[in-house]
Amino acid sequence: AVAEIVKPKKTVYAEIAFTDLAGGEAGGLDRQALNAMRKLDALCQVVRAFPDVSGQPSDAAREIADLETETILADLEVAEARVLRLQKDRSNLRELELLQRVQAALEDERTLRALDLSEEERKMISGYSFLTLKPLLLVLNVAEDAVDAEVSDEVAAAAEKRGLGVVQLSAQVEMDIAQMPEEEQQEFAASLGLAEPAKSRFIRSAYQLIDLISMLTANSDECRSWPVPRGTPAPRAAGKVHSDMERGFIRAEVVQWKDLVDLGSEARCREAGKLRIEGKAYIIQDGDVVNFRFNV
After folding, report:
1. How far apart are CA 140 and CA 159, in angstroms?
2. Which of 18, 69, 137, 247 lies 20 to 30 A from 201 at CA?
3. Are 114 and 68 in contact (CB under 8 A)?
4. Average pLDDT over residues 183-210
5. CA-closest candidate to residue 83, choices 67, 113, 107, 111
6. Which residues pair with 214 in a beta bridge?
């Protein structure tokens, strides 16, 4: 919508990349897959919620619990090894104390998401890439005739207990939608009782899972959406565009995208008092269109 107003030479959308990790031969995850998961910002577990070819019903709650057990055991292995090393050299007693808390929680079959950790404590153990500390989204793959049904009470309870998000979709329906021309996709989704294709809900939910928002920059050369963590101050957000902007930050000229679209230009936003001048303490909001002033 902003690009239609600005008419830039180039439009660059925010990106989120997904890595598909297959389960092991026995249905679980092998060490290679577990190690690959440690490099990711968040996890999405696709759970079967329809009968298999033999008519066997799904057991989504068991699948959720099984992955939880696997990741707890993988994290416990890492925590135990580090605790043993720190107990020998006593080089970092604060980290040792924290990791002993982590180890105790994992031995108690609790994920680290459920552990009350301060921001400083999270930073202290961030290098270990604990799997049960990563945000997790459940993607419930249902039958075609259940695409607009409510999430089952059992799965909803399992997700709520663990503090997890849930997106329900039908892979078969989504495949059918994806093969249609874009202008027909919304109409077909609506005919199934869906507000939009589940792909959009899934991507948006994953984006929110990592706690990202979109900051926009717009000029005649380029209109770009920049993913930035929620709570990012203006100078650090400027550094996403260029390190010089953060180093020499002076101020940010900010307008919300909807105001820019409704009023049609930055000049009209300024006249209407919708364009604001913000300083170093300003926290970037989702949908802010920002022009950074800097000097280096």
Report:
1. 11
2. 69
3. no
4. 82
5. 107
6. 227
- How far apart are the C-alpha atoms of 129 and 149, rounded to whole Å? 36
Looking at every residue in the chain, the average pLDDT score rounds to 90
**Strands 249-256 and 276-278, how do they pair?**
antiparallel
Residue 68 β-bridge partners? none
pTM metric for this prediction: 0.80
Which strands make up the sheet holding 10-12, listed edge to edge?
Answer: 10-12, 222-229, 212-218, 288-294, 249-256, 276-278
88-122 per-position pLDDT tens digit: 988 889 999 999 999 999 999 999 999 999 989 99
Question: Rounded CA gap, 218 and 131, in Å?
Answer: 37
Q: What does the alpha-carbon distance between residue 207 and residue 17 come to, in Å, rounded to a whole number?
A: 10
In sign, the C-alpha dihedral spanning 200, 201, 204, 207 is: negative
CA 3 distance to own-chain centroid = 25
Q: Rounded to whole angstroms, how far apart are CA atoms 160 and 14?
A: 29
Q: What is the distance, to the nearest Å, from the Cα of residue 196 to the centroid of all Cα atoms in its chain?
A: 19
Annotate the chain with three-state secondary structure.
CHHHHHCCCEEECCCCCCCCCCCCCCCCCCHHHHHHHCCCCCEEEEEEECCCCCCCCCCHHHHHHHHHHHHHHHHHHHHHHHHHHHHHHCCCHHHHHHHHHHHHHHHCCCCHHHCCCCHHHHHHCHHHCCHHHCCEEEEEEECHHHCCCCCCHHHHHHHHHHCCEEEEECHHHHHHHHCCCHHHHHHHHHHCCCCCCHHHHHHHHHHHHCCEEEEEEECCCEEEEEEEECCCEHHHHHHHHCHHHHHCEEEEEEEEHHHHHHHCCHHHHHHCCCCEEECCCCECCCCEEEEEEECC
Tokens in use for 99?
A: 């990791």
Q: Tell me which residue of 281, 258, 284 sits closest to 269, measured CA to CA.
A: 258
Cβ(226)–Cβ(215) below 8 Å:
yes
